């Protein structure tokens, strides 16, 4: 993925089947080649976020985030004091087993760790200005499949209401000085969002890309 020119990878532990040991192995490889690994966790959960960060991942993405309070909990669990209340255990992969002076390490870790909110409901869009104002949130992703479902237009990203939601997220993110992006396999939709000002794109899954590659190969060789 890095050789192909991608800037990061999201390991899906919301819908995916990866266990902690597999994520730790992916994080170790990512750290070794300086390729950011972000984990989409199932929810804002201290024990889950703690384990993934201690394994050395670069960032956390929380799906279905809807409120300022949830965003504050994400920062609380994901950042060390004084920015948050992340538990301290330094002889772990996240410190390369060599943290040095504790205050210096925690400051570096806070700067390195990326925290993202995924907006997928009308409620999340309604609260987007409050969410983006939470100090420590680095960016906002939209999950269009679930958002369209919550809007009552499952599978349809072309509605005016969807466009208004996207515009609201982009505007709030820009006002807060953070980035916005979208998670989708629809290339035309990605281009529309880029033209609106989004800069982060999760383009399909590893299984989707593998399947498309196989189908393209079959077509090329005529089988």
Uncertain parts = none
Q: Give helix and strand order, one letter per element, not per position.
A: EHEHEHHEHHEHHEHEH
Radius of gyration: 18 Å
**What is the CATH first-level class name?**
Alpha Beta
**How would you write the strand order of the largest sheet?**
1-2-3-4-5-6-7
Largest sheet: 7 strands, parallel
Helix content: 40-55%
- Full CATH superfamily name: Phosphoenolpyruvate-binding domains
Overall shape? globular
The overall average pLDDT, rounded, is: 95
Give the SSE layout:
Blueprint (H helix, E strand, L loop, with lengths): L8 E4 L7 H14 L3 E4 L5 H9 L4 E4 L5 H11 L23 H11 L1 E6 L2 H5 L1 H5 L6 E4 L1 H7 L9 H17 L2 E6 L2 H10 L3 E4 L2 H16 L2
Helix pairs in contact: 2-3
Explain this structure to me?
This protein has 223 residues and is of the alpha/beta class. The chain has a single domain, classed as Alpha-Beta Barrel (TIM Barrel), CATH 3.20.20. 47% of the residues lie in helices and 14% in strands. The protein has ten helices and seven strands. A seven-stranded parallel beta sheet has the order 1-2-3-4-5-6-7. The mean pLDDT is 95.
Summarize the structure.
Keywords: Lyase, Metal-binding. The chain has 223 residues and is an alpha/beta fold. The chain contains ten helices and seven strands.
Highlighted features:
HpcH/HpaI aldolase/citrate lyase domain-containing protein; 7 strands; globular; HpcH-HpaI_aldolase; lyase; single chain; Aldolase/citrate-lyase_domain; aldehyde-lyase activity; alpha/beta; 14% strand; 223 residues
